[in-house]
Amino acid sequence: MTVDNKNRRRVISRIVVPLIALAVIATACGSDDEAAAPAATTAAPATTAAPATTAAPATTAAPTTTAAPDEPCIRVAVLFVAGISDGGWSEAHGNGATYLQEQLPCAEVLFLLDTADDQTSEAVMHDLADDGYDLIFGTTFGYIEFMSRVAPDHPDVVFEHASGYLTDTNFSNYSGSLFQATYLAGIAAGSMTENNQIGYVGPFPTPDVVRDFNGLVLGAREVNPDIEFQMIWVNSWYDPAAETQAAQTLLDWGADVLFYGTAGTSVAQSADAAGAYWVPGNGLARRAAPDSFLAGPIYNWGVYMVSAAEAVMDGTWDSEPYWGTMADGFIELSDFGPAVPADVADLIATRAEEMVNGTFEVFAGPIVSQDGTVQVPAGESGYTNGHLFGMSYALEGVEGSMPD
What is the mean pLDDT of the chain? Predict the structure, then answer.
């Protein structure tokens, strides 16, 4: 799909939500990343809230852009639900957008921070399209419904949504197998627990969140099949009080390793204060308590953001969803914390190599859920769209209830 580069340069004065913007424009263009894509579904829009962060409250400043010395090769806008210094989801996407501007210095890249993932984001996206942006990234799940409504009104603009599942002629989504890295982190968790008890603090049970938790459980069970798992769901992407309470409940239960999928650092700090180890849903959180940190998965969002921008520029973009893996560098595991022994690190390195070359699968059958249902029969692959994108179960033997 070819997107004509519009020549309008007016400031986006009609955006109706508080935003903080940073635009970086340069000259001379180049990149060498590539992407792979899976099939996806076109199910009805969801409205689950997206990850919140610890960023400072939004200001009332409207976004501004700096006039480019030359016509940019592409104009890209990136919407963030909050700030980009949370040590988690938003910061990882901020790193991805920064990578995009580094790899394509001829591009104009606009960072729109504190863009609420509610109906007001719809007006923001309309304004960006009207003002000549060629490619718009929505970096959080909560934008999905609004982006799906905006895209048909702007057929010459490409819309990309993180972690979603909807597509249209000019609307697609991108995500990846983060569960590969949480499996590896699970090996570290299973090796380091002394009480054979691991606790999990979960946000919402979206398929990607559930995949990541189940991946960690399977990794821990590889090295220690006797581990007990307890999960508590706080029904929020970011609620420090609820996360702290859940973490303390798990620690009181006996967990000496905590894993969490929420934003912020409350669980990490609770674990560290209790002398327990912790694994975050994003390895960038390591700085919260580095001595008790074990390992964490990392999304390299920039790998795909560059690829998508190049495809828009050369007219080869299509709406086939992107599914990144460890093999293409989209997913990786962070460096280990100081407590992880060398032999554990070696085992993890071996498994990672097997994942990259395709000889090890995280969800190979048999996979059995909490209620005893066989989700993936023995000898079969769990790497199917129906299984991965519809995952809504915890594994057999995990204590606690999944939210309705």
Answer: 86
Judge whether residue 374 has pLDDT over 70: yes
The answer to whether residue 55 scores a pLDDT higher than 70 is no
Domain with CATH 3.40.50.2300 in the chain: 20-175+300-324, 178-293+331-399
360 beta partners: none
HEC readout, the chain:
CCCCCCCCCCCCCCCCCCCEEEEEECCCCCCCCCCCCCCCCCCCCCCCCCCCCCCCCCCCCCCCCCCCCCCCCCEEEEECCCCCCCCCHHHHHHHHHHHHHHHCCCCEEEEEECCCCCCHHHHHHHHHHHCCCCEEEECCHHHHHHHHHHHHHCCCCEEEEECCCCCECCEEEEEECHHHHHHHHHHHHHHHCCCCEEEEEECCCCHHHHHHHHHHHHHHHHHCCCCEEEEEECCCCCCHHHHHHHHHHHHHHCCCEEEECCCCCHHHHHHHHCCCEEECCCHHHHHHCCCCECCCEEECCHHHHHHHHHHHHHCCCCCCCEEECCCCCCEEECCCCCCCCHHHHHHHHHHHHHHHHCCCCCCCCCEEECCCCEEECCCCCCCCHHHHCCCCCCECCEECCCCC
What homologous superfamily is domain 178-293+331-399 in, according to CATH?
Answer: Response regulator (3.40.50.2300)
For residues 381-399, give the mean pLDDT.
96
- CATH top-level class for 20-175+300-324? alpha beta
Give the closest residue to 180 by CA, choosing from 281, 326, 347. Answer: 326
Total-model pTM: 0.81
